[in-house]
Amino acid sequence: xxxxxxxxxxxxxxxARLPSLLALRCFxxxxxxxxxxxxxxxxxxxxxxxxxxxxxxEDDLGVALFERRSRRVFxxxxxxxxxxxxxxxxxxxxxxxRELRASARQQRQxxxxxxxxxxxxxxxxxxxxxxxxxPAINIHLVAGGGAFSxxxxxxxxxxxxxxxxxxAIHAAPLFAEKNGPVCRPDKVSTWFTSGRNAALRxxxxxxxxRTRPNAWPAWADLAGQPQxxxxxxxxxxxxxxxxxxxAGLGVAIGPWHLVRDDIEHGVLxxxxxxxxxxxxxCLLSPAPLAEGTPQRDLLEWLKAMA
Length: 306
Prior knowledge:
26% of the residues are buried. The chain contains 10 helices and 10 strands. It folds into 3 domains: 101 residues, Winged helix-like DNA-binding domain superfamily/Winged helix DNA-binding domain (Arc Repressor Mutant, subunit A, Orthogonal Bundle), CATH 1.10.10; 93 residues, 3-Layer(aba) Sandwich (D-Maltodextrin-Binding Protein, domain 2); 102 residues, D-Maltodextrin-Binding Protein, domain 2 (3-Layer(aba) Sandwich). The strands form 2 sheets. The protein has an 8-stranded mixed beta sheet with strand order 4-3-5-10-6-9-7-8, sandwiched between helices. It has a two-stranded antiparallel sheet with strand order 1-2. It has 306 residues and is of the alpha/beta class.
């Protein structure tokens, strides 16, 4: 008996052996274009490389795949049969590759940086809705404000356009910033005049914050209200001033999107309403967000929530 390792490579047992994938790619391009030079250009190879790959494939299969006449090539019947099979096979491979890459993009964890108070008061309470609608998109939320770099591990950022960012950053507007004085509902009659044109009483305690030191003067200017000289408590962070208002310590300037839930739940009241301050919150990205991507799904959801 002849041992297996001494078997002839031309044995029928080896008929299922596949030719070189590179040779098949060269053949497919040459068969589709019926031109070795154009196939070489498409694959960034030389004419000689295409010719040698096809000749190697013909020797391996034992059949002629092209007729060569007057410096032109034409597929033989065998060539057409193989060309169809290779085209179908490469098509299946490309489709599987696209699906796997799309799946990998969906499974990747994206990092979204959001200004802390907006993250706490507006985004996180709505986040379960996003997760329910897009369970396959994995987004990690981090708090951050002001300037940042996409090179620091951040994929997307929600920021108010109160600082300059690079022209290379793409900004998709989400909503306008609107501000108004807010306080606990049971303090309204004490700190505001009554009636349709409610006004803040001069003695009403104002709540200030280090992160938005001009919040009161800016609101008064936009709302056409007199500037107040009243001294009030000052807090380190904007969120603390809003919590102080909830606690009944005074009146804070509250952006609509940060206090809307508290107003709807009766925790805060806004007797004088809100005025647009001309700034906007935007979703920032390194490039415009393409349709069908997780980032675009996030953008559309954010706009719907706004």
